[in-house]
Structures are given as C-alpha cells and as structure tokens.
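Changelog note: in this version the structure field was regenerated for every chain. One regenerated record is shown below for reference.
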Amino acid sequence: LVVKGWYAAKGVGVYAEEVKPGKWVGYHPSQPINFSHKIHANDNGIQCQYCHSTVEKSKTASIPSAMICMNCHKGISETVNPGSKEEIAKIYVATGFDPNTGGYTNVPVPLQWNKVHVLPDHVFFSHQQHVVVGAVACETCHGDVKAMTTVEQQRPLTMGWCVDCHRNTPLKMEGNGYYTELHEKMK
C-alpha cells in the first residue's frame, strides 16, 4: 500500500501515487498454477458457482479447494493445451494425489493463491445478497472472466462505483422471496 503525497526517504523527497486494494483496475497477480478461466468457464462451459460454491450461500465467493479441481483432473492429467501436464501435476502435489497409484498417499502441499479482488476490511459486501437476492451477474463486478486467461480486476470496486450501481439498479422486490419474507416479518 502506497499513500499519495511527498515523503522524505533518507533525505530524498519522494512522490508516490496512491495504490489501494480494490482500486487497482488491471491488477492480475501471478498465481501458483497457470489456471485459465477462459479454458474452464468459456471453452468447457463450467459455471462460476461450480468452483466458487459459496457465492450463493455466503458473504464470500471462496477460492476453490484443489479438491474441486480433482473432480475432473483425477481423470484428466493432460490436455491439448501446452504446459497442461505440468500445471495439473501442481494440483496433484497440492492434494497429495499420486497419479501412479490413483490414491491420496502423498503429503498435501496447499496452494497459496493470490487474491485478485480485494476490499478494505471495513467494507461489508455479501456475494449472497448480490447474486441471490439482487440477481447480479458475476460479470457486473468481475468483468468477462470467461474471456480471461489470467483473471484481472476490471472494475474499480470503490465506494463511489458501488453507490452508482445501487443508484442506477432498480430493486426487484416483486416476486423476490427475500423481500416477501422480509415484509411478512415486518407485519
């Protein structure tokens, strides 16, 4: 985190631009596995919710466990994509899977994913409320992830950006179970 302004560093004046999590459009950190959302979500048609299973039930969308990957990659150790065998082997290491025996006999080494979309700690944001109640599509906030080889932040995720969306998006209360239940409780 760099804060905007002039600072003295060892007697030298330094000017730095502000770079905060949540504001960095274009941010795409390296990851421990070269995972392509384009191949998985677009080419293979896997829905966001299959891997990010808590998006409809929780505040967070969750970073998938490597065991989710194993649902397919236990039987798929290589694809036509260059480098796939080496990248899939990293999933095996993460889960402790031995492809020679077909068992989980090795010591697992968890993956350390680098979070792409980061909000400040004081911000309350619930994926469940936006996805289930608001019926907001993933692309609204995350961009066209299905077209991304490397996921990058495509929206500023600032308070102003969120407020503009809330101002410009009408609430769909009619026929929405969440609001029906809420109104019944209020009676």
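Spot check on this record: Residues 1 and 20 are 6 Å apart (CA to CA). The longest strand covers residues 5-9.
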